[in-house]
Amino acid sequence: MSSIQITPVAHPANIGAVATNLDVNNLSEADWKVIHDGLYTHSVLVLKNQAHATPKAQFELTQKFDPACSGYGHGKTLDAKRSILHPDLKTIPHQPQVQVIGNGFVEEFEGLKDITLKHPHHKTFHKTAVPEAEDLDFTRFYRWHIDAALYDLQPPRVTSLMAVSVPKGRTQTLRYDDDTGDELQVPLGTTAFASGYAMYDILSDSDKEFARTTKVEYAAHPYIWMSSAKSKSTGLGLESDGLELPANELPPVDESKILMLPMLWKNPVTGRFALQIHPSAVRRLHLKDGSVIGDLKEVRDMVYRLQRPGIAPGLVYCHDWEEGDMVLFNNQGTIHSVVGAFAPDEVRIFRQCNLASSAPPEGPESLSQEAWTQPLRTYEPTKGPQAALQAWMKPMRAY
Ligand SMILES: [Fe+2]
Asked: InterPro entries annotated for this entry (predicted)?
């Protein structure tokens, strides 16, 4: 019998619960069952007071959701040799599935020395930005996403985020800066979550039918492909200005590694379906009748129309981080975004772990799983490997 207490957060989209009276370093099988079901019931589970939890314990808890997997969710694309790709994301040497993210200079942490972490700022990714003079008071969602490589590797089931150091203080006003006037008061450096289940539930019947029967094809090498493109002001996908890298500037593409996933992913505990689309990486939509929507702007417009209602201010859960929080979130039932801007001297240290899943997410029964793994089309780079190598040098964060 477990002594863990789960207290749901009162939230309109039923996101969030707080778990107390546990020790991540010493979990019984009964504890694990409570954590597992709590995570899949509430989508975001905050394990309080885990400052002492080791990176090993964090990895083992994360892996327990998918015992057959062991590699980091972005695989080799983020390993130390490729650090030029991800200068702000450091790997813990003694537990390489766990990454360090945050802000500011850190002298020593878990075997890493003299590291400088940088919280991503929307001005580096959005087509437009909050004016400099307003930057401390106003902010945006940086990028709504699922933690996933979306090429070769399957999306992780669960991500764990451990708050080691958290600067506290001011709040900011998050603006959507579209034509809705929507805004949200947020704690400094919050992480925002939106429920894929609520996103699906509020669709019209015809949109639900569309979502149930449509498959999403992701771009090959999506984070390189999109590296020159700019985000919408809501952080929910990209503007279509033709800035994506052409095939001849991508690394070689193995067609069998292109991901095609259902639009709806099934919750293993509740049986509910979540609308789960990575809006920045989507490339084509494959419809029930066999037709394919390939025009990128049209694809993005359709996805945006389906997803935007689900990130309305009242449906977003913004976690107010405290040191020692270990947050587990259902990466196959939510999308999330980094939020806010730190001053360079505000030191924040987080540990993140997720593991590429051993199997594709489960979709509606009407969709054949075999079809998702079929080779799709031929990408033939016309330039040599040098162009591909240069493309790899473009920095692109994975969060
Ligand atoms: Fe993330």
From this structure: TauD-like_sf, TauD/TfdA-like, TfdA_dioxygenase
